[in-house]
């Protein structure tokens, strides 16, 4: 029960990141790379404070795992923010979580993991639910640059999650990853950095300090207790939670597509995770 609650809280944090990023970039006109830079700095400060408050020391910086963690985290943060400039929000989420699913399943197979048939079935049902919820009706023109950026973000997050399964100190590892990612994200933002609005900056700080910093620390704890394919399927709940947040916070309508997708996604996750 405690593990299931931790997974649920983490998925809610991930969904909140999508809502906060969309609000800052689309509604408040915040430069996406500036949002990413503020987000990673706020996350790093929060995580370092938590490590200090718990009387711990940071794990070594100059290791292959930490370098890979910083690179993949940076790839996700930058690609995620930039992609939403041109992509429809629903299509972007579908690309992101579909890509994460593929990356983590491929990583599990490459590592020699045996994925039960029920997990394949559950993943297929959940992805079907995402398609019902997120795929726009009518003719769709996909911006190839935005799709590539979101695909890169999906690969980055999938690899970051696979690396997290090996972390001996989840909080410390996440803190170091964020700290090392700061100069990488700042460098990427330097060419287009702009002064954000107060609202946009506030949303970026909230995203970095709470729903990213704390959420990712929780996620690294979860990853040490479940396998990669289970983690991949669990994340398919995020778009549904984000859509629900839009209904509650942004006054969006509840449609039959939303109701059907919710049943399919949660049902698929239940099929995959019922033995946890």
Could you please describe the fold and organization of this structure?
With 276 residues, the chain is an all-alpha fold. It is built from 11 helices and no strands. It is globular and about 45 Å long.
Q: Which features characterize this protein?
A:
globular; mainly alpha; single chain; 276 residues
Question: Gist?
Answer:
By secondary structure, the protein is mostly helical. It is built from 11 helices and no strands.
Which helices and strands occur, and which strands form pairs?
Elements: H1 2-27, H2 32-53, H3 64-83, H4 89-110, H5 117-134, H6 144-164, H7 170-189, H8 198-223, H9 228-234, H10 238-250, H11 256-273
Q: What string gives the helices and strands in order?
A: HHHHHHHHHHH
Instruction: Please state the overall shape, judged from the principal axes of the Cα atoms.
Output: globular
Tell me the structural class: mainly alpha
Count, helices = 11
Task: Say how many strands there are.
Answer: 0
Strand content: under 5%
- Mean pLDDT over the residues: 81
Cα separation of the termini: 9 Å
Low-confidence stretches: none
What Rg is obtained from the alpha carbons, in whole angstroms? 18 Å
Major beta sheet summary:
none
How would you name the oligomeric state of the polypeptide chains in this document? single chain
Helix content: over 70%
